[in-house]
Amino acid sequence: MRDKFSCFSENSINVSNYSCSSYSNNTCISQNIVAPSIQNSISSVYKLVLSTLKQILITVTWCKNHSNQGLSISFGDDDPSNVPTFRLNTNSRFFRKKKGSKLLDVDDSSKVNVLWDLSNAKYETGPEPIEGFYVVVIVDSEIGLILGDSETVTKKIKDNTPMAKISLLSRREHCSGNTLYSTKAQFCDSGNFHDILIKCSVENEGFNSNKSPILCVNIDKKNVIRVKRLQWNFRGNQTIFVDGLLVDLLWDVHDWFFNPVSGYAVFMFRTRSGLDSRLWLEEKQQHSHKDKDKVEFSLLIYACKSS
């Protein structure tokens, strides 16, 4: 993602090197949008800091397609095929154990225990349950991650079990359907959850009644950006404020216009640590000492238009 967006200047809207001959009739934007697109997978990356100051990255992925629905939890930032991973397929006849626990060896010194109960989980349209479940990750006898019903979990774990420090670094959503996307995000650990709505549609332009695609992003029903003539402004960024934080909002809908068969759009929300004037810092050393413990959060939405 950094390579894709690092060339953009602050508040850049117009970035295009393509000929208008590639585009015709706004056919990639649905004019009759009824319901939001469906989430196919959701991946969240957490940073866990134990009392020994040891740090571990935990990636939790919920997925759903025609053949399976399940959960995977991996430990570390390397290739998922080379790191310890817990997998659960709730649709499989052979591996549909919806309640239980499993021990894993993360490395030579860490022991992980995963406890879960999805037997009464309730879902909406996406792969991630909304209630009636819990997933707990315990690392070296410290509670590292609790998802779902925390009250049920506390009854099953000893009161003196220490809690590790956990921070959400990123959330990645893959969606398919039309050009309307709805999700929720918490931009900092102490902040509120916000409703995010991304909508691409068409509107009349001028007096000649030509249809022009536009991009609108709403947070908590308040419009934060509106990009007109999207076929030419298909990449760009703007800065918004959420919970007192600077958040860079970036979009790339190029493939919707120029590669509609297999392409997808990308939307990204990323918080900044401090008031740096650039989107990215080239060197970590440029961070000031007082900002070193601040956690940046990013939300990425990969949107495949299948209708």
Report what the structure shows:
The structure is a single chain. The protein has 307 residues and is mainly beta. The chain contains 3 helices and 17 strands. The longest helix has 7 residues. The N terminus is likely disordered.
Q: What is the averaged pLDDT score? A: 79
**Can you give the helix content as a percent range?**
under 10%
Uncertain parts: 1-27, 279-292
Q: How widely separated are the two ends? A: 25 Å
Describe what is shown at a glance.
The protein is mostly beta strands and 307 residues long.
Give keywords.
5% helix, 2 domains, nine-stranded mixed sheet, mainly beta, disordered N terminus, 307 residues, single chain
Helix and strand topology:
Blueprint: H1 2-5, E1 38-49, E2 55-64, E3 69-75, E4 85-89, E5 99-105, E6 111-117, E7 134-139, E8 142-148, H2 150-156, E9 165-177, E10 180-186, E11 193-205, E12 210-219, E13 222-227, E14 235-242, E15 245-252, H3 254-258, E16 265-271, E17 298-305
Parallel strand pairs: 9-17
Antiparallel strand pairs: 1-2, 1-9, 2-3, 3-4, 5-6, 6-7, 7-8, 10-11, 11-12, 12-13, 14-15, 15-16, 16-17
